[in-house]
Amino acid sequence: QVQLVESGGGLVQAGGSLRLSCTASGRTFSSSGMGWFHQAPGKERAFVATVTWSGNLYYADSVKGRFTISRDNAKNSVYLQMNSLKPEDTAVYYCAARDPSGGSAYYFRSEAAYDYWGQGTQVTVSS
């Protein structure tokens, strides 16, 4: 059974940083894309960032220049370094992974591209 477990969330002041981690078990994702989504209170879950199996990186416009996604295939893990955090970044952050498949950068920004999800970790940014 595939499991994705996130960690690293918490409370931080605006301008601060957090690093989220997600470790997968049950299968390896070295040949698959992995990504991060977030869901703010009262809003739908939205794309944050993704890294393809070949290392291509895609970001939501709202986080470009502030967030960095990376992966460690040896640890079957994906990370999200979040800098210059803003109150509007407050949300539950979800790790996601997909089975090997083709697709476009546009497709990889959609929830439909992902087959596995973590339980989420809360990030709260105070002003």
Largest sheet: 7 strands, mixed
Spatial shape? globular
- Strand portion, in percent? over 45%
- Give start-end ranges of low-pLDDT stretches: none
Total helical elements: 0
**Strand count:** 11
User: What is the terminal separation in angstroms?
Assistant: 40 Å
Name the helicity range: under 10%
Class from secondary-structure proportions: mainly beta
Give average pLDDT, whole number. Answer: 95
Global Rg: 14 Å
**Would you list the SSEs in sequence order as H and E?**
EEEEEEEEEEE
Structural features, described:
With 127 residues, this protein is mostly beta strands. It is built from no helices and eleven strands. Strands 2, 4, 5, 6, 9, 10 and 11 form a seven-stranded mixed beta sheet that branches. Strands 1-3-8-7 form a four-stranded antiparallel beta sheet, with no helix packed on it. Strand 5 and strand 6 (57-59) form a beta hairpin. The mean pLDDT is 95.
